[in-house]
Amino acid sequence: MKEKIEINKRVGATIAKYRKVSGLSQAQVAELLGLSNDAISRMERGTIALNVERLYEFAQLFQCRVSDLITDSQLQPTEQVYQLDRLFNQLNSVERDKLISLIEQIIEWKNSGKNYRTFSG
């Protein structure tokens, strides 16, 4: 029984993390999912166990996999990785290639030890 409570708390904390990274309030999530603010709060605190259908709704909302919501948070990428992934997915393939090239140039420049004023991108 205690293990169930801990799992619910961990999943709830992960949902709260995704919500915050997404820039959404509990009220906004509640509205988008057709739930009450109190229900979202209780889910995030782990006092309500989530079924698979509800987890799927959260995963769709946060553009992640259901497994991302239920696995140990220590195995999850940082919040910045999730944010980058969401932003990256808003680009078309040509824009993605250009962004990757730019990032590679920045890393090459950084590793060269040159002053930031010399970066010409």
Automatic annotation (TrEMBL):
Keywords: DNA-binding
UniProt xrefs under Pfam families: HTH_3 (PF01381)
CDD domains: HTH_XRE
Gene3D superfamilies attached to this UniProt entry: lambda repressor-like DNA-binding domains
Domain HTH cro/C1-type: 15-69
Annotated signal peptide: none
UniProt GO MF annotations: DNA binding
Keyword DNA-binding listed: yes
InterPro entries membership: Cro/C1-type_HTH (IPR001387), Lambda_DNA-bd_dom_sf (IPR010982)
This protein's name: XRE family transcriptional regulator
